[in-house]
Automatic annotation (TrEMBL):
<protein>
    <submittedName>
        <fullName>Uncharacterized protein YjbJ (UPF0337 family)</fullName>
    </submittedName>
</protein>
<dbReference type="InterPro" id="IPR036629">
    <property type="entry name" value="YjbJ_sf"/>
</dbReference>
<feature type="transmembrane region" description="Helical">
    <location>
        <begin position="117"/>
        <end position="134"/>
    </location>
</feature>
<feature type="domain" description="CsbD-like">
    <location>
        <begin position="4"/>
        <end position="56"/>
    </location>
</feature>
<dbReference type="InterPro" id="IPR008462">
    <property type="entry name" value="CsbD"/>
</dbReference>
<keyword id="KW-0472">Membrane</keyword>
<dbReference type="Pfam" id="PF05532">
    <property type="entry name" value="CsbD"/>
</dbReference>
<comment type="similarity">
    <text>Belongs to the UPF0337 (CsbD) family.</text>
</comment>
<keyword id="KW-1133">Transmembrane helix</keyword>
<keyword id="KW-0812">Transmembrane</keyword>
Length: 140
């Protein structure tokens, strides 16, 4: 409870006492003065509550901001970590694929070297077929 709420409550109470005392003694001036103190006390009390509410909202807002900032940092770190893991996995997979391609390429080259006649015949047949296909499309 802040100072304004405390003083406003006391002033409001004092105003009620003045109003009651003015009514008992038949003093309208004192009643008006009491009503004024009551209203002023209620206003000061309401102001104090509004200040506390604003302070609480500000504190909650700061807390939410910090929580959001921490969560964003956490998500960014997680994204960076996952990205690095994904990149590492992609590099490993790429190296594996390259290794397999080199192995298969060497195997094909070895077989072609062992079977030179068959390889030469295949190359010649493919070249002839491509030439024939290209020649047919030129006549159309």
């Amino acid at each position: 409870m802040n100072k304004d709420r405390m003083e406003g409550g006391v002033r409001h109470l004092r105003g009620r006492v003045k109003t009651a005392a003015g009514a008992l003694r038949g003093q309208p001036g004192r009643q008006v003065e009491g009503a004024y103190d009551q209203a002023a006390g209620a206003a000061q009390y309401a102001y104090g509550r509004a200040r506390e509410t604003a302070h609480d909202l500000r504190r909650e807002g700061e807390h939410l901001y910090e929580e959001g900032r921490d969560r964003a940092r956490s998500l960014a770190e997680e994204a960076r970590s996952r990205g690095e893991a994904f990149a590492d996995e992609a590099v490993r997979h790429g190296r594996h694929v390259r290794s397999r391609a080199e192995h298969h390429g060497r195997e094909i080259a070895r077989r072609a070297d062992e079977n030179r006649t068959t390889t030469l015949a295949l190359v010649a047949a493919v070249a002839f077929g491509l030439g024939w296909l290209m020649r047919s499309s030129d006549r159309s």
